[in-house]
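Format notes (please read before filing issues)

Several people have asked whether sequences and structure tokens are stored in separate files. They are not. Every record keeps both together, in the order shown below: the sequence lines, then the token lines. Line labels are part of the format and must not be stripped during preprocessing.
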Amino acid sequence: MSNNILKNFETLIDSGSRDEFLLRQIQLDHLPRHIAIIMDGNGRWAGRRNQPRIAGHRAGAEAVRATVETAARLGVGYLTLYAFSTENWKRPRLEVEALMGLLREFLRKEIRSLKQNNIRFQTIGREEALEQAVRRELDHARRETETNTGTVLTVALNYSGRTELTQACRALMLEVQNSGRNPDDINESDIVRHLYTAALPDPDLLIRTSGELRVSNFLLWQIAYSEIYVTETLWPDFRRASLFEAIIEYQKRERRYGGVNGANPGPLLAANMK
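Then the structure lines:
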């Protein structure tokens, strides 16, 4: 464990605490380059406390804050959070409005922290469907952090993995038609170029909270070889130690990409591993 990493957390972690115990177990030369998280359990967290669902979402924002800062201090290159799916529009109107209000509030409050931690903010999904006030805050956050060189924080908003793949196929079809290219020459890399995540490596680690065993239409192409970690912890209770535990579990696994030890993972996978 590098002393520099310990210094990154010295104002946050007490000596002899469980957080320090877990942090010392992490192999810094074997960190997942890209972590994706399905943040689930806000409603159940609130229900168990006889509170309205929005209280769970507000508590979940604290988990986002802790997770983003922890990932940045560890030196994780990419962090992608599933914040709002296309299916979430089916929720009660007041809950959706409250969620959008929380998003705007979070962005306004966290800009300074994002800049201090050298985090670059971006989004994926069909942002054009969001209300104008939300889009303004998103644009502001992107502009304010666009020159940051540390962790890339990607928030999936109005996102659907199936929609992403459909749009990628449509764009690729038009490209092939306009170029006169032989469709038989289409390969996986061509599809990747048209995904929302074209500039990102595939996730090494997918975390799902609340114990649910499904991927919920999230990054369907990109998680083909991701290690999946499911925790019973509800998202509002997910904190620094929770992320440490997920990374430690990831580092115990042997990633073979369908092959055997020492096998060549192939050019596309190799590119995502760089």
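For reference, the curators noted about this record: The two ends are 22 Å apart (CA to CA). Strands lie at 34-38, 78-85, 120-124, 152-159, 205-208, 227-230.
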